[in-house]
Design brief:
Blueprint: H1 2-23, E1 26-31, H2 41-54, E2 59-65, H3 97-107, E3 111-112, E4 115-117, H4 128-132, H5 159-175, E5 180-184, H6 197-207, H7 216-240, E6 245-248, H8 254-260, H9 265-270, E7 276-277, H10 286-298, E8 304-305, E9 307-310, H11 318-335, E10 340-344, H12 346-352, H13 356-362, H14 379-382, E11 387-394, E12 411-416, E13 423-428, E14 434-440, E15 443-451, E16 458-465, E17 470-472, E18 475-476, E19 479-483, E20 492-497, H15 507-510, E21 520-523, E22 530-532, E23 549-554, E24 561-565, E25 572-575, E26 581-585, E27 592-593, E28 598-601, E29 604-607, H16 608-613, E30 622-626, E31 631-635, E32 646-647, E33 652-656, E34 662-666
Parallel strand pairs: 1-2, 1-10, 2-3, 2-4, 4-5, 5-6, 6-7, 7-8, 9-10, 11-17, 11-18
Antiparallel strand pairs: 11-14, 12-13, 12-15, 15-16, 19-24, 20-23, 21-22, 21-23, 25-34, 26-33, 27-32, 28-29, 28-34, 30-31, 30-33
Helix pairs in contact: 2-3, 5-7, 10-11
Length: 667
Amino acid sequence: MKQLVVLILLCILLATCFSVSNATEYRAVWIDGWHSGMWTASEIDTMLSYVYNQGHYNVIVPQIRKKADALYNSTYGGPNGTGEPKPDQVQPPSFDPLAYMIQKAHEKGIKVYPWVCTHRCPTTTTDWFYVSHPDWLTRSQGGTSPLYVEGYWLDPGHPDGEEYTINVILDIVKNYDIDGIQWDRIRYPQLNSGYNPTAIARFQAEKGYYPSYSDSTFTVWRKNNLNAFVARAYAQIMEIKPHIVVGANTWPEYSSGNSSYLQDWNAWMFNHWLDINVPMNYTSNNTTFTTRLQDYLNRRYGRYVYSGLSVGESGQTLANACTQIGYCRTYNQGAGIPWGSQTYSYYHGTVTLPGWFQYVAENSSRPYYNVDNTVPSLPWKSNPDTGIIHGRVTKPGLNDPYTHDWVYRAYVTIYHPGPPDEVYMSTYTDQTGYYVFMDVPPRSGYTITAEKAGMVSRSYTNQTLKPGEALREDFQLSYTTCTSPPGTVVAGWNLISLPLDPVNTNPATVFSGIDIDLKLFRYSRTTWSFIVYDQWSPGDFGPCKTDEGYWLLADGPKTISYQAYAGGPTQRSTTLGNNCWNIIGCPFTTDKNWENAEVTHAGTTVPLRIAAKENNWLDSVGWWWDNLSQSLQTLGLSEDWPATDCLQPWHGYWVKTNTNDVVLTLR
């Protein structure tokens, strides 16, 4: 009796485990763009019938870019700058395969993770990419023309080519409701490559010599080019749509991929530049398959691994492919991550090994796939406890022959003194001027600094990072002349502010050429009184700052013109006075919606609407000065029926707090 009870409990436990695992299994299939399956609406309907109705897959991975072409309505790049061309097989030519796939797949609960070839671009010399951009393609050592290895390859050391490809990716991300995206051909074609004239000139300028293809320094330099691309792509996608699952179809053996193709996907996983790794573990030999699989899982670093498998490999059988799915389940479960695998491919499952989709779902002895469509959630996305800080560093007018105005190897740091602990991170910008910090603890009060020898250094203070946020802060390491537009200062009273940080904060310098003696006033947030500028004691007035507004009495129209730091942070925080009126500025060169402001009090940050309407930390209605009518007008939320709901550059605003220790953040 006791044994029977134990047996029953064990069966219940096993049933529960398998039920939970099945409900959260990643079951994906590649649909390649070289064969039919996505060229017409009818083909897509048929494909989804196989994949979903028969095979019970819950993720499709359609190859929407195989050689700088587009199985979607591309709006960037291409021979005319209006988009990469569709393959001739797409019919009618106006048909958008990706949009149709997303619509039909989502109706069935299937996720769509487009598959994008990033660096293998043209396959023939007549392809538009080869004709338009042969100067971006990689070469071998001593080569005088682009290198051909199953096609022609974009050189990861060419800044313009990398910038182009990032923009192709963002075109997809911005315009389509995709659930994920996967990189393919994201490597060098062979070790003896990377000798694009621009790439090798950059290396020589940086290192001082012409390398052999086996040179260790050149090897690291080339890997860093690819690493930077992967990091930047991830950060920019997270900035736009943080729910997107980013993956890569990587070389089946890390050691050979890293040494022969400079694809260091171990670094990509370690640095969390990928959410999932999908190695192309194509073999019918199960010893090879499981040995590789174990190595993949040892390199997951808190992210997920879903091994690829191919039903088109020599010697592969229906039963053995199912066995490999079983290995993926067993090994993943042992590693503490969800079940999952990705099958190559729709074509092989219907042509090379026909009957696959029905077999994988219906084999009575091995019911591998059921009809539940739940894809495993990613805890670092569903419940994030870190964030990303990223951006671009430029110097207008730099005109570098290779990197243009992008500042290469600018030194960027982020710092927070704590509590709870000190945070210090540093990195260098890549060839496109980009920097990325991953896994940054979310908190307020960061200082972000960018510097490069011979250029202006910039620091942004009081920066706030939220959990799961990809905070972008761009830097311009140069000065500019900031000049007020006509009508900013007129005869009479003017309530003004400064949109850019002045290099010299002395009021006499900022307002040079304007009589400000006993005519320029700032409002103290601590004494609740005005302080007038007095040329005999200018120190009493203090420096000019962008987070303040100023009253200026003028005897006629005036123009404010001062030397400023070019650009500025995307967010500005200012500590308001306790339970009093304040004059704030608009520290931006464009209008900012008042509703998008955030308010922090006692360690809690909420949108302005909640802070004002529910918490009563401050009033939602403020005041600004209309120079033309010489009268106060309202600033407020839309429901306040204000004269304006936007902060405008060069204007100052009265804002009232109703409690102590209020920090206002404008974005």
